[in-house]
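Holo prediction. Input below; ligand is zinc ion.
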Amino acid sequence: MILPMARAMRPKTFSDLHGHQEIVTALKSILVPTLKHQTFLFSGPKGIGKTTFARLIGQTLLCPNRSENNDPCGSCDICQAIQNGQYSDFLEIDAASKTKVEDVRDLVSSSFSAPLQGAYKVYLFDEAHMLSTHSFNALLKAFEEPPAHVIYILATTDRHKILPTVRSRCLSFTLKPPCDADLEAYLLSICAAQSINYDIAIIKALVQNSDQSYRDLLNLTQHALVLGQGALQGELLQNVFSAISNTLWDRLWTAVVASDLKNIQDCVRKSLQQVGPEQFTKQLLLSLAENHILSVEDRAILYISLSEIPRLMSAHPDPSVLVEMQLVVATLTLAEKKNENLS
Ligand SMILES: [Zn+2]
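Structure of the complex:
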C-alpha cells in the first residue's frame, strides 16, 4: 500500500527526482524533440522510481508546457491526470493480474486505435516479469512494429524473467538502489521543506529501516510523524525506530560462531553508529534471546558474559569500547568451550 506521504512526495517533474541523472539525460534526448524509441524496460528493486519514470515519460511527451530543458511542468491538467492515474491514454497494467495471453492480446489490439486525447498512448506493464511466455510473445509482435503513437514501458524487479527477445527490443534502464547517504539527504530535504523538527539519530534510524527504498522510507516517516505528533523527535520514536537491522544481527552472530573477531568489531561499530551503547546493549540481549544461529547452549554461555555489560558500563569511560571488548571476550569464551568439548 502506498501511504499518502509517498504519493504526495512522488516526483512530478524530472528535477524533483533524486539521483538517476544519467538516465534522465538519456531519456530526454530520446523523447524530444522527436521520439526516437518506443519500447522501454525499467528494472531495479521495489520503491526506487520505475513507475515514476514511466509517468514522467508520458508527461514529457504530452505536457503542453514543457520547460526549455524539456522537463514537463508537473502541474497542468495533463501532468496531474497522469500523476493521479486518471489520464485515459496512459494505461497502467498490473501484469501480475493480467498474465493471460487473451488480456495481453486485447491490450495490444487496443493500442492500434488512435489516442483519445493527445498525440500518444502510453502502456505501462508493471511487474512485467509476471507475464507468461505466450503473453510475452503476443507483446513481441507489437514491440517489433509499434504504431507511431504508442509507447510501451515494462517495469520489473526481475529483469532476467523478461523474455530475452522482448528485452532485446527495449531500451533498457537499470535503476540502482539509493545508498544511505542519498536517503538521508532526501529525508533531510523533506524535513527542511516541510519545517519538520528532527533528531538526526531518528533520521538515521528511519534510513536504516527503509530497505534502500524511497517509498518505504516515506511510509516509515509518515508512521513516525504520527507517533511523534508531527516531529521526528523524542524517546518514543528513538525506541521504536532505532532498531538495528536483522541482517546486521545475523552477521554479528555468524561472526561470533566463526570467532571472526574482525567481523565482530565491524558489526559492533556499524551498530554503534546507528544507536548509542545503551540501546545497543538492550537490543543485543534481545537479539541473543531470539537468534536462530547459535545453539541454546551457546546462547546461555554468551548471555552470562554479555549481561555484565550494563553493570560495567557505568564504570567504563567509553561504553562503546567496552561493549566491543565484552563481545570479543564472550566470543573467545565460547570458542574455548567448544574446543574443550571437542578434545
Ligand atoms: Zn504539464
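The CA atoms of residues 105 and 138 lie 6 Å apart. That is the main takeaway for now.
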